[in-house]
C-alpha cells in the first residue's frame, strides 16, 4: 500500500451510498458521494504520512483515517460502513493475487522445509496459546479459533522493514523470520476458507451434502488450475501483441475477477480463487508486467479496505472494554512471543536468536484485520468481539517499533553486536580502502580484468549491504596501522585510498608512506586543498585524483558539443582547461614545500576565473 489516496475506488462506490439523503452544502445525490470521497481522501492523506513518520506503517494510518471518519463525519459512507467494507474487500482479493504471483511453485518446493516445517509449527503453536486464552475468556469455540489464528499472524510489513533496514536478509535471524512470514502469507488463504466453513448456514448439513460440496469445491480448484496452466499464458501472449497497455491491465483485472467468481460459485472464498490464479501466473513471462498493472489497484482498494475497517470499528465497544484491551495487548504479545521462542528452540536455534525472533514476531499483523473482518461479516465473530481484537492488533503494531529495544533489555548483559575484523581471506593484488561510491566504481575495471581486490571499510551497515549483493568487504579502521597490515597493505601491488573524509585519507596516506614507501598509491582527493596536502606527503601528482575533476571537465565538453561544436573542438577545449588547471596546481604544490609555506598557499587557494579564449581557439 504505497498510496495514500483513494479516489477511483471511492468514486466508484459513491453512487451506492449517495442515492438518498438530505442535501449538504446544497449538494445532493451523487454530489454527496463526491464530498464523502473527498473527505476520506483528505483524512488518508493526513494520517498515513503521519503514521509512516512515526514508524507505525501505512496500515495504522488508514485505520486512524477510518476511525476519525466514522466518529467525526456524518456522510454517505459512514452511514453504512459495512457496505463499504464489502465493496473494499476486492482489495483483499487483489492482495492475495499479488501474493500468489510471488510464490512460484518451484520456489515453494525449494523452501518447503523451512516454510511448511518451521512456519506451520510456529503458527499452530502460537494459535493454540492464543485460542486457549480466548476460550478461558469465554468465547465460543468457533470465535476463539478465529481469534487465535488471526492473532498468531505477524505484520509482514513491519518485520520485513526491520530486516531490510538492518541488512539481515541472509543472516540466520533473517532467514528464520522470512520463512515463517512466507508461511503466514500462504496461511491467510486457508484461514479465510475456514471462516466460510464455520459460518452458520441455518441448519445442519447431511454427510452426503457435505461430501458433495467438498467434491464440487475440489473440482472447481482443479478446473481453475488447468485453466491457469493452459489458457492464461497464451491469452496474455495474444494481448501483449496488441501493444495496448490498458488492455493488458483490463485482462489482468479480468483474470482476478473470473477466478474469484469461480470460487464463489461453489461456496469458496474469492481470495482462494485469486491466489490460485496468481500462483498459476507466477512462472509466466508476463508476471512482472501483470503485477505492475495490478499494483495500483491493489494499493488503492486495500487502503480503502483498512479505512472501512476503521469506520466499522465499534468505538463504543472499545471504550467499554478499554481495560480489557489494555491488559490483553501485553498478554497476547507475551503468549505469541513464548510460542515463537519455543518453536525456535525446538528447531535448534540458540537462545539469543530464539529470543530475538520472539520479540520481532510478538506483534500481531495486518492479516488479522482481514480475517476478523471476514469473520464478522460471516457472523462467526460477534461485532463487539471483532472490534476488541482489531483494537488489540492495532495497539500491538503500534508498540512493535520498540521491539528491538525490548529485546536489548531482555537480553541483559549480551555484548553489543559488532563485526569481527576477520582478514583470513585478505591479500589481493590491490587493496581498496573505502567502499563508498568512489571505491566501488574504481574497483570495477580491476574486477573486470580479473584482478584480485581486497576491500576495507569501517561502516558496518555498508558492509552488510555489500554482503546482500555477494561482495566481500572486510571490516576495519584504515587509520590503524595493524588493520592496514592485516588487510594486506604490505603485499598489495597497489593501494587505492578512496575514503571520503579528507582527514581520514591523509592519516591513511601517512601510515602507508611511512610503513610501505614502495607501495603504488592512488588517492582520492576531495578538492584542490587536499590535493596540495597529499602532494606534500610525497604522493605523485598523477596518483592524486580529485573526485570532481574528470567529471566536471567531461560535463563542459558535452555542453560544448550540445551547443554545436565539433567533437574534436570540444575535446581540445576540455584538454586546454585540464592543462591550465594542472599547471596552476603544480605551481601551488611547488610553493607549498614547508609547513608554513603550505599553510599560506592553502589559505590563499580560492576559485580563479578562467580567461575567455579567443574564438579562433574554439572552431566549430
TrEMBL record:
GO terms for cellular component: endomembrane system; plasma membrane. It is a multi-pass membrane protein. It comes from the Bacteria. The chain crosses the membrane at residues 28-48, 60-78, 84-103, 115-137, 143-160, 180-199, 211-232, 253-277, 297-315, 322-347, 367-395. InterPro entries: Cation/H_exchanger_TM, K/H_exchanger, Na+/solute_symporter_sf, NAD(P)-bd_dom_sf, RCK_N. It is found in: Endomembrane system. The keyword Signal applies. One of its GO terms (biological process) is potassium ion transport. Its main location: membrane. Residues 427-548 form the RCK N-terminal domain. Keywords: Antiport, Ion transport, Membrane, Potassium, Potassium transport, Signal, Transmembrane, Transmembrane helix, Transport. The keyword Transmembrane helix applies. GO terms for molecular function: antiporter activity; monoatomic cation transmembrane transporter activity. Residues 1-18 form the signal peptide. Belongs to the monovalent cation:proton antiporter 2 (CPA2) transporter (TC 2.A.37) family. This is Kef-type potassium/proton antiporter (CPA2 family). It comes from Hasllibacter halocynthiae.
